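Section 5: illustrative case.
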């Protein structure tokens, strides 16, 4: 599939170059169209080579799966048990080692009181092992309760997990001094795509999933959504 897509892109490119030799108004319009197609195909090709874009997240209206999480005390707890207390905002994040994640948690912590005033609770879910959970609290300075999904039960059930290939894993280790195995306590080399779910009556009311880990749902936007659903 990738080979045929590459060939098609090359053919379009050569066709565009050929049109430059016979420039007129018709050819200019055709060249614009081809360039737009090239841009779309190149983006799709880049995305197809990134496992983060292959996730299939749980959708609005679907029931929350029965999965287990771990507390900082290494105690198992069912997600549905947590959700039975009140409507819930679930924040899936990569880990305390991720600066984007801890910054986002800190921003969400600023509106935690407002979220609770609307009748919701907010929790965090990460693949960090239980012994690493306190680092999320320390680094973000928040009071949001966080839970470990180091076994990937929740990440897989919500359709958010993606595999970090060997090349990227080694890049994390060598370039960023980041060992995912030490953080998760597992050798699955997987991470969740960052996401926010709003759950009511154990069903998905809203979801925001973005494979670009540097882009997160703004705190004020989340608050506005909670005020309207």
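Designed sequence:
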């Amino acid at each position: 599939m990738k080979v045929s897509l590459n060939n098609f892109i090359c053919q379009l490119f050569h066709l565009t170059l050929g049109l430059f030799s016979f420039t007129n108004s018709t050819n200019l319009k055709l060249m614009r169209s081809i360039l737009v197609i090239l841009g779309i195909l190149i983006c799709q090709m880049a995305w197809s080579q990134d496992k983060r874009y292959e996730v299939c997240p749980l959708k609005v209206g679907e029931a929350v799966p029965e999965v287990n999480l771990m507390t900082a005390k290494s105690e198992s707890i069912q997600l549905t048990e947590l959700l039975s207390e009140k409507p819930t905002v679930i924040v899936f994040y990569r880990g305390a080692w991720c600066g984007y994640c801890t910054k986002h948690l800190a921003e969400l912590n600023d509106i935690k009181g407002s979220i609770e005033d609307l009748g919701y609770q907010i929790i965090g879910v990460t693949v960090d092992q239980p012994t690493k959970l306190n680092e999320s609290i320390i680094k973000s300075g928040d009071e949001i309760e966080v839970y470990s999904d180091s076994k990937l039960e929740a990440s897989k059930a919500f359709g958010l997990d993606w595999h970090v290939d060997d090349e990227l894993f080694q890049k994390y280790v060598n370039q960023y001094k980041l060992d995912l195995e030490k953080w998760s306590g597992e050798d699955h080399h997987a991470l969740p795509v960052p996401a926010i779910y709003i759950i009511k009556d154990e069903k998905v009311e809203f979801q925001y999933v973005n494979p670009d880990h540097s882009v997160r749902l703004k705190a004020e936007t989340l608050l506005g959504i909670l005020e309207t659903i």
